[in-house]
């Protein structure tokens, strides 16, 4: 596991297609924005079954479109 420290408004790039943005840090809460292609599955780790995809990728029902949070506002990516 790679552990990185980032401050607000900084990013982490994963491969060529995925960007993680640190949008806001408030106390113990960190708001992250994820920019990724539509075919990249993004799911919170605490949800059941997160490590094993159970929905066919072609259906698109478990895919998250690339979006970016700016404070409390959701902006299309």
Describe this structure in words.
The protein has 77 residues and is mainly β. The protein has a domain at 28-44 and 58-77. The protein is built from no helices and 5 strands. It has strands at 11-14, 18-26, 29-35, 67-70, 73-76. The strands form 2 sheets. Strands 1-2-3 form a 3-stranded antiparallel sheet, with no helix packed on it. It is globular. The termini are far apart.
Strand content: 35-45%
Oligomer: single chain
Radius of gyration: 14 Å
Helix and strand element order: EEEEE
Helix content: under 10%
Q: Give the termini distance in whole angstroms.
A: 28 Å
Tally of alpha and pi helices: 0
Mean pLDDT: 75
Walk across the major sheet and give the strand order: 1-2-3
Judging from the principal axes of the Cα atoms, what is the shape?
Answer: globular
Structural class label = mainly beta
| Number of DSSP E strands | 5
Q: Which regions are unreliable across 5 or more consecutive residues at pLDDT < 50? A: 54-72
Main sheet specs:
3 strands, antiparallel
